[in-house]
Amino acid sequence: IGGVRDRVPVGVSVGIKDTDEELHDQVQGFIEDGYARVKIKVKPGRDIDMLSGLCERFPDTVFMADANSAYTLEDVDILKALDPLDLLMIEQPLRYDDFLHHARLQEQIETPVCLDESIKTEWDTELALKLKSCQVINIKPGRVGGLSTSCRIHDMMADAGLAVWCGGMLESGVGRAHNVALASLPNFTLPGDISASRRYWDRDIVSPEFTVADGHMAVPTGPGIGVEIDTDFIESISTRVATFGV
To answer: Of 39, 41, 80, 120, which is the active-site residue?
Structure first.
């Protein structure tokens, strides 16, 4: 599909934890696993102090925040307080359908705004660009409808001089192979949420499984999606099988 690199930078996402100690322990583990970037979920009350503590303890780690629409424009002062932390970005701070307020927020904060759930089509991308609602877009093939739309959004953002990265939606190795191929396109310049197979699965359904080394994941070079589907394993774990005629 036009990829230009044989390995892609990858990051990992960490959910909201009850305590900073629990959060720090998990982040430490992911740093040891070699991820190039760590995304931290945030919400009101678990944001500035929590992120400040992380940045202080892990000064060499690239962090970003993901709010999953937890804030409104009335929280602009809280979101401004992120600026000194030099985060890579804050993802989806406001409602998914609020392009205008995202634009107004981006005008008032230095931290790059990234849109995620807001972007379902290339027309959403066009609107975001016209309003200047963001500086970054997270492209999830499963959310925007596949590789063709993903590539068109990639091209639109490249033409605008803005970066994209590839998000994940709990894919098996089959979906992950598509995501890695997509992330090898030239304008995917930021680490994506493309975790190793073992992050979610005891055993993946493809061979070889996907691994992370030095903050990167290798782009498969085999024919098709680049990896082999382990049909024997799939059959061994199947509980119901249906056959459809053509």
So the answer is: 41
DSSP state of 46: B
CA atoms of 168 and 137, how far apart (whole Å): 13
132 is catalytic: no
**Domain total in the chain:** 1
Residue 142: burial class (beta carbons within 10 Å; 0-12, 13-18, 19+): middle
Check which CATH number belongs to the domain holding 142 and give it.
3.20.20.120
State which residues form the domain around 230. Answer: 7-237
Collapse the DSSP code of 146 into the 3-class scheme (helix H, G, I; strand E, B; otherwise coil) and give the result: coil
Pairing of strands 228-229, 206-207: antiparallel
Rounded to two decimals, the pTM is: 0.92
pLDDT digits (tens, 9 = 90+) for 45-59: 999 999 999 999 999
Q: Give the C-alpha distances (Å, rounded to integers) separating 175 from 98, 114, 163, 170.
A: 29, 23, 22, 9
Q: Which of 39, 43, 132, 140 is catalytic?
A: 140
29 pLDDT higher than 90 = yes
> In this structure, is residue 242 part of a structural domain?
no
Cα–chain center distance at 16: 16
Kind and range of the H or E element at 103? Answer: helix 99-108
80: annotated active-site residue = no
